[in-house]
Amino acid sequence: MNQQIVGKHNNDANANPAGGKTTGRGIEIYWQNGPFGRSEDGTRVDPNGAFVEGVIAAAIDRLEYYQASKFKCRENALAITKLEEALHWCWHRTAKREAQRVEGTHAVHA
Question: Which of 42, 65, 78, 86 is the most exposed place for a label (fewest CB within 10 A)?
């Protein structure tokens, strides 16, 4: 099924991502507004919205549910693999940003 999705993505005064909302039938995602920063003591602050990684993980979870049923198939397995690959690259980006000490900021990583 090709489901219609509507995205409204916001920017702050400096044109940085600043939250937004993506909707579709049965879907309502409120995106993280601003960077997922750290407090003064270096611990992560609580997020205020969804991250792409969480949405990908939710899709994997649903496909794995199908795989545990009579709807198990090669196509679902391949979709899971590709989504896991997408997560890998998102985590790779985060690790790179952390190593460069720009994670949790609007600074661009190299």
Answer: 42
